[in-house]
Amino acid sequence: MNHLHLLTFARGSALNWALMLCVAGIVLRLFEIFGLGRKTDLAKPRINSPGSGWHTIFSRSLPPQGMLKREPVTYIGGYVFHLGLLTAILFFAPHIELIRSMTRLGWPSLPSPLVDASVVASIIALGVLLAHRLNNPVKRLLSGLCDYLAWTATLLPLLTGYMAYHHLFIEYTLMLALHIFSVDLLLVLLPFTKLFHTFSVFISRWYNGDIFGRKGVAS
Amino acid sequence: MSATLAKGLNSFKEVIDAPIASFFSSCVHCGLCAEACLFYTETGDAQFTPIHKLEPLRRVWREEYTLLGKLGKLLGLSKPLTDAELTEWEPLVYDSCTLCGRCAMVCPVGNDLTYMIRKLREGMSSSGHAPEDLIGATTRSITIGSPMGIKWPAVLAQIKHVQAETGIEVPVERAGADYLVLMSSMEIINFPEYLSALSRIFKQAGVTWTLASDAFEATNSGIQIGASDLAREIVSRIVVAAERLKVKCVISPECGHAFTALRWEGPNLMGKPFGFEVKHILEVLDELHKAGKLKTKGKDKRPLTYHDPCQIARRGGVVEQPRRLLSEVAADFREMPDAGVMNWCCGGGGGVSANSRAEPLRLQVFKHKITQIEATGVQTLITACANCRIVMEEGLEHYHMNIEVIGLTELLAEYLVEDNAP
Ligand code: SF4
Ligand code: SF4
């Protein structure tokens, strides 16, 4: 199998399978959550505000009072990593092309050097966050094999994408194939690791906002 | 497996609902919840990280309600919880969590860890892993009627004392009154000022109220220990009395957890919405003040600050009311850093103050409150929870701080305009 075959496989059957597993996994996980149900709250809410869950989905993206100062590395590292990753996924011209070819949906891209910079920032942030995870006693206590697996699976697409774009180390086609394989891996792991927060964060934040909102507190 | 352990594991399974599953699914192990919890910030001990306290519940969730967890169990990769593990976790679940809700305000993925710890305690208590002192308090609540073992004659004695002091009748068993007034044991034993302040304020406001001889205690140890069946029994006494006396509203006293127990958990424990309202005393006083029925004269010149009880502010939504009331009677009111919904706990809520084993830790974490008070430079601290009050009084004494703690209701009564004061 030459490099081109490998690439064709990575973005053909492998990607299709990965996407299918990812979607099936997400559906399963959503069933696992919502299947458990929730009892109706019989206590009269202080204010009737069905919007409080939605409010928290957005408001929880900002650090609460005093927290940025307590944990600057986690917050700043977290922002840089997430924004860099999102920029790379959603605004790199070839990615938009791929999405367009699969869904016919498309949108304008950002200049490649800008995307490149955001990828570098994102990789650096991941490095800093890993060092912090290994050094901070709380994070170390909470971390297990799955956390390091999720970290690696997130780093690989960024790293291989960067190397492919800059034609570093190995032949471009092979690097591109590796890049897409790493994305395939990420897609498969997403529903079954903490990476699932990509989706469940909207649910958990909504519940938080709803629970607090009924008591008249904006969370 | 012993029968009690099986019962405990069963209640772990029962309490897990969609919110809890979403919370565990979302956790990214960032550790930020620790930075919000005074048991971690004051000790630097990572085991006090809120999500870590929930490990037993997380394991049950994973093994019972996720495909991968079930597979792992089948392949023998994960083992069911043991009694020894639960024993090890007991101090984390009870001694180092006041159910203050601060962690739930900061978790970036929105996990309501407090909701989860409250539920976790259901399994801990039914598997026989609750602190002895809390078991004692709950048993006294069920058999005697109050966690501190207070009976109606003790309340009657206080009523007589208050009547003699104020010259105002304290109504008992008065059907059709506007309000049914509850108290906490702590108030009955330590702070009789509360009842006398209320008598005077209500007389002046011209509202009718009553005490009930079979439902005077507002606190609910059943909730703190995590035994919903017992919590229901304790709440039902109040519901029965409120319905019998046909009151429009039940007033939860200056006590934080009592308010949560009755206002938010009560209807859910009873399985039906209440036919009466439940208000915290500060809400009632604020309403009376707005309606022009609570008039005060003069202002306290001392610099004052206010400690927001967690269950009243962050978990209760009563934040503006005490500030409006204080602005009437305090000439020099100063906010603490992080005041309001992000206030720091006194360290004694959620059953911690009733748990003697937790005392050294409670006193250690109280240092945060001291830092907050010192930042304001006041010598007088106002609050609206008798439990916070006693915990802070003890803490201040332990650290040799000369600071007076006063209940807000009592402070208002001091400046009350009375037509025919005795
Ligand atoms: S703050 Fe939230 S996401 Fe982070 S470790 Fe705690 S519970 Fe998990
Ligand atoms: S509720 Fe309060 S005391 Fe309990 S874990 Fe959360 S922050 Fe800590």
Describe this structure in words.
- Chain A contains ten helices and no strands.
- With 219 residues, chain A is mainly alpha-helical.
- Chain A has a single domain, classed as Transmembrane di-heme cytochromes, Chain C (Fumarate Reductase Cytochrome B subunit, Up-down Bundle).
- The radius of gyration of chain A is 20 Å and the shape is globular.
- The termini of chain A are far apart.
- Chain B has 422 residues and is α/β, with parallel strands linked by helices.
- Helix content of chain B is 54%, strand content 8%.
- The mean pLDDT of chain B is 92.
- Chains A and B meet through helix 1, helix 7 and helix 10 of A and helix 2, helix 3, helix 9 and helix 17 of B.
- The complex binds iron/sulfur cluster (2 copies).
- One iron/sulfur cluster binds at residues 27-33, 51, 107-109, 111, 113 of chain B.
The helix tally of chain A amounts to 10
How large is the radius of gyration of chain A? 20 Å
Oligomer designation: heterodimer
- Cα-to-Cα separation, first versus last residue of chain A: 55 Å
Largest interface: A-B, 57 and 63 residues
| Count of beta strands of chain B | 8
CATH architecture annotation of the largest domain in chain B? 3-Layer(aba) Sandwich
User: What ligands can be seen in this structure?
Assistant: iron/sulfur cluster
Query: Which CATH class of the largest domain in chain B?
Result: Alpha Beta
Structural category of chain B: alpha/beta
Number of strands of chain A: 0
Topology:
The complex is a heterodimer of chains A (219) and B (422).
Chain A: H1 3-34, H2 52-59, H3 67-70, H4 72-91, H5 93-103, H6 112-135, H7 137-142, H8 145-165, H9 172-189, H10 197-214
Chain B: H1 3-15, H2 18-26, H3 32-36, H4 38-41, H5 50-53, H6 55-65, H7 67-74, H8 83-95, H9 102-106, H10 113-126, H11 132-143, H12 152-166, E1 179-181, H13 185-190, H14 193-205, E2 209-210, H15 221-225, H16 228-245, E3 249-252, H17 256-270, E4 277-280, H18 281-290, E5 300-306, H19 320-329, E6 330-333, H20 359-365, H21 367-376, E7 380-383, H22 386-398, E8 404-407, H23 408-414
Parallel strand pairs in B: 1-2, 1-3, 3-4, 5-6, 5-7, 7-8
Helix pairs in contact in B: 1-10, 6-7, 8-10, 12-14, 14-23, 16-17, 18-19
